[in-house]
Amino acid sequence: MSSSNNNLVDLDLSEIPSAKNLKFGITVSKWNSEITNSLLNGCLDMLQSKGVNKNDIEVLYVPGSFELVYGSKYLQNKNYDAVIAIGSVIRGETKHFDFICNATSQGIKDLNISGNCPVIFCVLTDDNVQQSIDRSGGKYGNKGTEAAIAAIEMALI
Known about the structure:
Elements: E1 24-29, H1 33-49, E2 57-62, H2 68-76, E3 82-90, H3 96-114, E4 119-126, H4 129-135, E5 136-138, E6 141-142, H5 143-155
Helix pairs in contact: 1-5, 2-3
């Protein structure tokens, strides 16, 4: 949704369906918490603006993005309409970035194939901190907001 060619500034909130009476689980990585907390705030703001009661949202913190898969599976089994997995992996000097990004994306894909409800992938996989800032409330909007929109739409399927 949001990139240099398409920004959330142009988003018409009236086009997003109501989420009243829906329940959401959100798994959040504590790694790169300045980024993931911004993503979480964008997500929560959107869900609540579309009618979700605070009591119908559970936030579960996990150590890192790799652990998002287990945390999301745990939440899938708690009868939510959708789960949102929020993380941030920033490229370093080793191949660790590639392994974590691949395992996390594949794990979340597997949960979508076999789980009880959709799991929305809100994991930033950026080359540097500035790219993460730009996508977590910066010049390209907030991917957490986009994840909330996707979760609402998927929950209503």
